[in-house]
TrEMBL record, chain A:
TM helices/strands, residue ranges: 28-61, 67-89, 110-130, 160-178, 245-264
Pfam families, per database record: CbiQ (PF02361)
Gene Ontology cellular component list: plasma membrane
Naturally occurring in which organism (per UniProt): Candidatus Zymogenus saltonus
Main subcellular localisation: membrane
Family annotation (CDD domains): EcfT (cd16914)
Bilayer disposition of the protein: Multi-pass membrane protein
Record's keyword terms, sorted: Membrane, Transmembrane, Transmembrane helix
Database matches in InterPro entries: ABC/ECF_trnsptr_transmembrane
Identification of the protein by name: Energy-coupling factor transporter transmembrane protein EcfT
Compartment annotation: Membrane
TrEMBL record, chain B:
Molecular function GO labels: biotin transmembrane transporter activity
Gene3D superfamilies: 1.10.1760.20
Membrane-spanning segments: 7-26, 32-52, 59-80, 86-103, 110-132, 152-173
Lineage: Bacteria, Deltaproteobacteria, Candidatus Zymogenia, Candidatus Zymogeniales, Candidatus Zymogenaceae
Entry-linked InterPro entries: BioY
Alphabetical list of Pfam families matching this protein: BioY
GO CC annotations, alphabetized: plasma membrane
Name by which UniProt lists this protein: Biotin transporter
Places the protein is found: Cell membrane
Membrane topology summary: Multi-pass membrane protein
Domain of life: Bacteria
Family the UniProt entry places it in: Belongs to the BioY family.
Annotated keywords: Cell membrane, Membrane, Transmembrane, Transmembrane helix, Transport
């Protein structure tokens, strides 16, 4: 189980660029606008315009285009599924030499499949740009502010932001703990790669029980430490990490607002 | 003292969200499809943390994954809502809540019933989302029976097995400390 080496925490790629310096709330807002707009466009020219916008965002962020496209790889099966479903199952005018037997490819199918695939591709690249140019902690701040209207429904929004940051910090710690426990049990003779299904399941107990006990101890220690340092649940606090709306944010928002009408003409 | 307890629930919820994230990468090598421990942790978060703690941990898991940490199997970031399997992740929240609600009442039968309902609730959210996302998001027709077969009948056996495993672990832990564990 060499999963520790496989996991790369976060997608953030640090660069000194215009996009990186934008307020995370502005980036989040722009992403939502562009994604919603994508669901309303069908014409090739509008797809071309949106593609140019996405390409401009990539260039401004100074992240290599190849790296962005690599992030699309896990979704390839989704593209293939969507495209093939449309190519082969949409009724309409056949493209020669089809139909061959029960296999048929239609003009309408190719058009629909292409539209769907382009739409999904652009949505994926846009949201990849958000996670590539914004740290998870910055996104947590943006989410906290996006969720702040829920305070009137007594949702503990401030504490949720704290919890999200704790979760982000805990993931690598727990992976390390799990790896340590696995190695310790291996050194005492447990072989995790042998045995039938039930045998393998039983071998999870020596991993999970110590992991849970360590987690509970850590929760105890952390809650006492936080209270000793003056933390109080549900209270408003100042923030060491401030986010400010500034001139580049205004320019970015203005640019998006200026270009939006072209998609709805 | 009340303040300490609520903070402890929050920290435990964060820990279980992180455990759920970590467990998505622990794969049991089986001769057939590889099983991850992810849903095992979903059941346990409800059983051990109670209804609200469990639901909170799964909400956190969802938020952290959507914020870009690669904690979902097969992807991460806001685009994960496009995945036909995203409905299962949403189902983790009410599933965890349900398990916690029944496990809180003690005994041996109610936690078992809670775990079974927990397993089924995930599919109640997952299969319709699979159906609708294929039909409307991808824009292609799929019969609901096909969604039911792909999204429910095929994976249900593994999940029932994991439910049993979670239940066994729950009983073992309960012998050693009060449940929900935030009460200790």
């Amino acid at each position: 189980m060499k999963f520790l080496q496989d996991i790369t925490l976060g997608q953030y790629m640090p660069q000194d660029s215009f996009v990186h310096r934008l307020d995370p709330r502005v980036k989040f807002f722009i992403l939502l606008i562009l994604m919603v707009t994508l669901f309303f466009i069908e014409a090739p020219l509008k797809f071309l315009l949106m593609g140019l916008i996405v390409f401009l965002i990539i260039r401004l962020s100074k992240i290599p285009t190849g790296y962005v496209l690599k992030g699309v790889a896990p979704f390839v099966w989704l593209f293939l599924f969507a495209a093939c479903a449309h190519f082969f199952f949409t009724p309409g005018r056949s493209i020669r030499p089809f139909p061959i037997g029960f296999v048929n490819v239609t003009v309408e199918g190719v058009v629909n499949g292409t539209v769907i695939t382009l739409r999904i591709l652009l949505i994926i690249v846009l949201s990849s740009m958000l996670t590539l140019t914004t740290t998870p902690l910055e996104l947590t701040t943006a989410l906290k502010m996006a969720l702040s209207p829920l305070k009137r429904f007594k949702v503990p929004v401030n504490d949720f932001a704290m919890m999200m940051m704790l979760t982000i910090r805990f993931v690598p710690i727990l992976l390390l703990e799990a790896q340590r426990i696995i190695n310790a049990q291996r050194s005492r003779g447990i072989n995790f790669e042998t045995g039938g299904l039930i045998q393998r399941a039983k071998k999870l107990v020596p991993i999970l029980i110590p992991l849970f006990n360590l987690s509970f101890l850590r929760a105890d220690e952390l809650s006492v430490a936080m209270i000793c340092r003056g933390y109080a649940t549900g209270k408003e606090r100042t923030s060491f990490r401030e986010v400010r709306f500034s001139t580049p944010d205004f320019f970015a928002l203005a640019a998006v607002m200026l270009v939006l009408p072209f998609f709805f003409l | 003292m009340k303040r300490t307890k609520s903070l402890k629930i929050y920290i435990l919820a964060s820990l279980f969200a992180a455990l759920t994230a970590a467990s998505a990468f622990i794969k049991l090598p089986t001769p057939w499809v590889p099983l991850t421990l992810q849903t095992l942790l979903v059941y346990l978060s409800g059983l051990l943390l109670g209804p609200w703690g469990g639901a909170m941990s799964q909400i956190l898991y969802l938020l952290v994954g959507l914020a870009g940490l690669p904690v979902f199997t097969g992807g991460c970031g806001p685009t994960y809502v496009l995945y036909p399997t995203f409905g299962y992740l949403v189902g983790f929240i009410p599933a965890s809540f349900t398990a916690g609600l029944l496990a809180e009442r003690g005994g041996y039968l109610l936690p078992a019933l809670g775990t079974l309902i927990c397993v089924l609730v995930i599919y109640v959210f997952g299969v319709p989302y699979l159906y609708f996302s294929v039909n409307y998001l991808l824009g292609k027709e799929m019969a609901f029976l096909s969604a039911l077969k792909i999204g429910f009948l095929i994976p249900i056996a593994g999940d029932i097995f994991k439910g049993g495993a979670a239940l066994g672990i729950f009983y073992l832990i309960r012998m050693r400390m009060p449940i929900p564990i935030s009460k200790r």
